[in-house]
């Protein structure tokens, strides 16, 4: 095969890789230094072709009350107003009784895709050999039974006339368990192939994590929702209407869920979890009945506005990046979460609080008022304001009807004169 310029790049020592990129992309000394300054051994060993640590801001959500306990929740996010909104929603829900969270299931599921097997026969075989298959699965990974209870459920689903799925669900304890279940599935797949002579297409965990489910709910008293113009009951009804629209319209449902994931992803990243797995699980779960819907629902009750959400949160409290990323452990401590169940509950609860704040803003002032107010700092910085100048620029921008890049440039010109 033809040799390409970047072949074997990953085998080069860090400094050589950096120099190659710097010279190929004509980076200035300052740019090269910037990349170099933020390199760490941990990251160099965590991912491939490592170049630099990419810093994202971390902040803390206040007043999140879950199952009677108050939590501070670290969130890693680049978007202004997300943390303010999550804190706002948390405070509103804390004015009721806080958020009630229950983890109903905590198994990691995976599948072995079998091609061309006679499905009833496969079902019978798997059923008759369940104990053997569990043993083979549990024996395949040295830590399965150290972490959790190991293989728990087994089944066969017909996918179409050609394909079937052998589904295995495993209790991986406090770990996310991706490596464990993949090893278990591959071992069982090889055994099935040998025993039955079937064709195995693949063996892999499923990100449709419908067995790692958290249910959260909470009530906001009406008087906490009122504003200058609208009673709390009216705001509550508008939020319930917004929630209804997210159940019937995919355009709105996607945005509604993006608001929820603002909180869930940011907290998951802070705890060192694989947020793509959570995204994938949550988004697929949102269309579990065939129609993509909002994950949360809000309704008016005599006690106030009641919100509820059922969402998969497939995470681990130990292992993987949670063990390696230095901030992950500190963040678990800040949040006061001591096991995977608590961490799942906190992450889902942040999603509900985040959603409440966004909906309240949308049906009252509109999103732009609060959001843009907090965006002004990044608008100022994006247009060249130094940290010393930001406050003065934001004050000047607040007086304008339409803050813009052009406006920042003019304000800076005046300030620097
Ligand atoms: P407000 O009503 O002006 O705030 O809200 P307040 O001054 O009354 O403060 C209420 C609480 O909010 C505070 O309580 C804080 O907890 C928090 P306190 O501590 O004062 O007792 N809070 C803040 N926390 C940290 N920093 C701040 C701050 N300000 C208030 N600077 C706010 C202002 C922006 C919070 C409100 O307008 C809001 O919640 N807006 C929603 C913003 C939002 O959702 N942003 C996400 C990006 S938009 C998006 O991506 C999703 C979306 O499309 C989803 C959807 O469509 O469903 C909207």
- Write the CATH fold name of the largest domain: 3-hydroxy-3-methylglutaryl-coenzyme A Reductase, Chain A, domain 2
Rounded to an integer, what's the Rg over CA atoms? 25 Å
Task: Give average pLDDT, whole number.
Answer: 94
Order of helices and strands: HHHEEHEEHHHEEHEEHHHEEHHHHHH
Unreliable segments of 5+ consecutive residues: none
Spatial sequence of strands, sheet with the most strands? 3-8-10-9
Total domain count = 4
Strands, count: 10
Secondary-structure-derived class: alpha+beta
- The CATH C-level name of the largest domain is Alpha Beta
Describe the overall structure.
With 417 residues, this protein is of the alpha+beta class. It folds into four domains: 1-55, no CATH class; 58-104 and 212-365, 3-hydroxy-3-methylglutaryl-coenzyme A Reductase, Chain A, domain 2; 108-205, Alpha-Beta Plaits (2-Layer Sandwich); 370-415, Helicase, Ruva Protein, domain 3 (Orthogonal Bundle). The protein is built from 17 helices and ten strands. The protein has a four-stranded antiparallel beta sheet with strand order 3-8-10-9. Strand 5 and strand 6 form a beta hairpin. The longest helix has 24 residues, at 340-363. The chain is globular. The relative contact order is 0.13. The mean pLDDT is 94. It binds 3-hydroxy-3-methylglutaryl-coenzyme A. 3-hydroxy-3-methylglutaryl-coenzyme A is lined by residues 62, 79, 81-85, 87-88, 91, 255-256, 258-259, 262, 357-359, 361-362, 367, 370-371, 374. Its EC number is 1.1.1.88. Belongs to the HMG-CoA reductase family.
């Amino acid at each position: 095969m033809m040799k390409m310029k970047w072949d074997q790049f990953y085998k080069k020592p860090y400094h050589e890789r950096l120099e190659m990129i710097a010279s190929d992309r004509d980076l200035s000394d300052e740019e090269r230094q910037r990349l170099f300054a933020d390199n760490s051994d941990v990251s160099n060993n965590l991912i491939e072709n490592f170049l630099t640590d990419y810093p994202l801001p971390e902040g803390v959500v206040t007043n999140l009350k879950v199952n009677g306990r108050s939590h501070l929740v670290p969130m890693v996010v680049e978007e202004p107003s997300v943390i303010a909104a999550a804190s706002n929603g948390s405070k509103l829900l804390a004015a009721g009784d806080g958020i009630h969270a229950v983890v109903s299931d905590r198994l990691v599921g995976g599948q072995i895709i079998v091609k061309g097997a006679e499905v009833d026969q496969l079902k019978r075989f798997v059923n008759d050999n369940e104990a053997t298959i569990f043993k083979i699965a549990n024996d395949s990974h040295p830590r399965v039974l150290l972490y959790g209870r190991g293989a728990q459920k087994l089944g066969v689903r017909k996918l179409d006339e050609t394909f079937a799925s052998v589904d295995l669900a495993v209790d991986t304890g406090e770990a996310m368990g991706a490596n464990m279940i993949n090893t278990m599935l591959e071992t069982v797949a090889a055994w099935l192939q040998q025993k039955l002579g079937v064709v195995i297409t693949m063996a892999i965990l499923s990100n449709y994590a419908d067995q790692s489910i958290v249910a959260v709910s909470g009530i906001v008293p009406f008087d906490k929702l009122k504003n200058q113009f609208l009673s709390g009951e009216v705001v509550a009804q508008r939020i319930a209407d917004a929630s209804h629209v997210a159940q019937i319209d995919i355009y709105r449902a996607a945005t509604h869920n993006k608001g929820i994931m603002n909180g869930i992803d940011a907290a998951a990243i802070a705890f060192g979890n694989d947020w793509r797995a959570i995204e994938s699980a949550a988004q697929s779960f949102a269309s579990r009945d065939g129609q993509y819907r909002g994950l949360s629902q809000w309704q008016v009750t005599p006690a106030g506005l009641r919100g509820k959400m059922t969402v998969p949160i497939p995470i681990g409290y130990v292992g993987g990046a949670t063990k390696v990323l230095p901030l992950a452990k500190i963040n678990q401590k800040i949040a006061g979460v001591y096991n995977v169940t608590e961490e799942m509950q906190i992450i889902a609860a942040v999603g509900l609080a985040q959603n409440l704040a966004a909906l309240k803003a949308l049906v009252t002032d509109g999103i732009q008022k609060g959001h843009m107010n907090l965006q002004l700092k990044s608008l100022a910085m994006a247009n060249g304001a130094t940290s010393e100048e930001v406050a003065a620029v934001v004050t000047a921008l607040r007086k304008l009807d339409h803050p813009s890049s052009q406006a920042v440039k003019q304000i800076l010109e005046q300030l620097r004169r």
